[in-house]
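In the previous chapter we treated chains in isolation. Here, by contrast, the input contains two separate entities that must be folded as one system, with a combined length of 776 residues.
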Amino acid sequence: MSVAQMTRPTMNVTVQSNIDDGPAESAADRHRYDAHALRDLTSRIVQGYGLSAHDGDVVADVLSFADTHGIDSHGLQRFQLYDAQMGNKIDPAAQSEIVVDTPVSTVIDGHRRMGQLNGRQAMDMTIAKAKKTGMAIAAVRHSCHYGAAGYYANLAAEQGLIGFSVTNTEPAVYPLYANDVWLGTNPIACAIPTRPHAFFFDASTSVVAYGKVELYSKQRKDLPAAWVVDPNNQPIHDSTDALGRLMRYDNEAGLLATGGNSEYTGGHKGYGFSVLVEFFSGIVSQGATTDRTAVGDPVEGISHGFMAIDPRIFGDADTILRNFSEYLDQIRALHAVPGKRIYVHGDKEAEAYEDRMTNGVPLYHKTVAELRGICDRLGISYAGVLDH
Amino acid sequence: MSVAQMTRPTMNVTVQSNIDDGPAESAADRHRYDAHALRDLTSRIVQGYGLSAHDGDVVADVLSFADTHGIDSHGLQRFQLYDAQMGNKIDPAAQSEIVVDTPVSTVIDGHRRMGQLNGRQAMDMTIAKAKKTGMAIAAVRHSCHYGAAGYYANLAAEQGLIGFSVTNTEPAVYPLYANDVWLGTNPIACAIPTRPHAFFFDASTSVVAYGKVELYSKQRKDLPAAWVVDPNNQPIHDSTDALGRLMRYDNEAGLLATGGNSEYTGGHKGYGFSVLVEFFSGIVSQGATTDRTAVGDPVEGISHGFMAIDPRIFGDADTILRNFSEYLDQIRALHAVPGKRIYVHGDKEAEAYEDRMTNGVPLYHKTVAELRGICDRLGISYAGVLDH
């Protein structure tokens, strides 16, 4: 939660987000901004909606984690969404409620607090329980967008535990061979403490996350593969057209699940993982599955899941984690396809973190303009932070 | 373990295996054989290697589960592999050893017993612990091929619990952008008790399992998509060529991870899930990761992982599981792409089970010939079972 934490030498990181870092990093597209200053500004903006300084810092920590680790789709470019939801989908005055509390499990009703606050509470409780019992699990209902799933998994890894987090989202994905938008992008994140940085897996169960389509639209680039299809399973390549159709929620487009639009390429696998995410978020919490997250007034909200496992329940944790670190080093050293580098999950984010803590966080002009507009409306100064 | 269990009306089921059931079911290719008779014969064959009647029944139950549920790649067509490994990779006289035993966790050294025996022991212990503590986990090292991962997950679902199982395998898969065969096909299975049959997800983290390439080769069909690539990431379409290269282990071919051969199609996701399977099997058990399973004399053997969760730790289990059943029914009823049906994971296997318990299990001529040869060598009668 502190700046000290953000500057620790051991870094943790998502491959999901970084697949287009090349073009996205071009200096012409983005200016760089100081990570600490952005984090402070984010907390002040959150407090501008009436939340406490503590809560502002929690939300800022989650967003800063994403921005500093190259998970651009889940950093400050998301803030426009939170601003639009504040006071309707998000209740800035809400308090959460613990509805199940056993030695190994927690269920929280988030009462539509900001998702970051519910997520942090649930994962902190899960980590504490796993340290006592060996493993623990949690689910949250009636929540809101909680940022990068990997943030919560990483909280466990920072304390020597194996962490998992999943969340459902708003409807965006066609189940295989359906053309009703029904499933969320439903990420699965896992972090495991290793050297030199955590193994960090954070992947939507769709081919890409919603935010990736947004990023391509902001960059005015065509989608490079079959990420979004029309109701006949035909790919849509124009990113702005695809995004527009997705945002109208009129079933004229859907993201594909990981594996694509046929069983022959494994589309049933992403679809199956996505349903598992629905189970461990919306079903076990007795909240809303993705298809019902936007139903009602106030809306039902989304649901999250969390798990932590203490590696000591398998034996000597140091040996286990050292063996895993060595195993990952062996993968990094394999022969590569000509012209390619072999990454382990977390490597790209660790490199992004090193770069961005030194050189600043790159933000798109559009994102900066959105943040300035929010600050102006709330009467918050961004002087010294978003000047250029 | 009993025939009664096999004929119960509630069935549990893998989408993974059934994607080519259409052509594979053609009467010209396969005769049908009585499921109970095959199961009995399988147990007698296993006993022919010197194993006990109990152990023979366990192995037969696992293989029969696959064959009766349409998971053809992991049924009796696997037996040739077991026969070839018996006495070298598989030690028919071995006993397993429990090396970690806590209220929530188990680690077993399988001492190269047949994988089904180690898997069944580990999952039975995990189910018993989860019933007491709410959730439990296990890992097995120094084991052998254990059949369909979903069998073990399903044992939990039959008792009202959520079950998981994973296993590593022999090397078959290139990590994304590597051209050393390093990872296994590494399936992830999960079963959840629902009506009218369990939600049953059992998917290799490669585009397809190894056995699927074998099936296509037996059928002399080309691979229908980019399942296997050469060291330059180029797809190999001839199934017999692909299988031959995979079986030579000379790095001249590798299966792709789910998501394919690029980050743009999600190849890093299947690769990441595959590494997680290595962690929860070979790493936490302090056994062998896939790359080392065939090292040594005797070989290190493969590793498995298991987990069970009691849904009562989230609240009223009946409500939770009823809600999930209704949710899955809603998916089945969505609008479909023209000409397609929407399946929920487990539907195809439930239908296969109903058909095969009534009409018999279809086996390829090649599989029947293999089984007859084994019986002849061991002096076991297959009269009345494999007559045609």
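The longest strand of chain A covers residues 135-143. Chain A has 13 helices and eleven strands. Compare these points with the single-chain example from earlier in the chapter.
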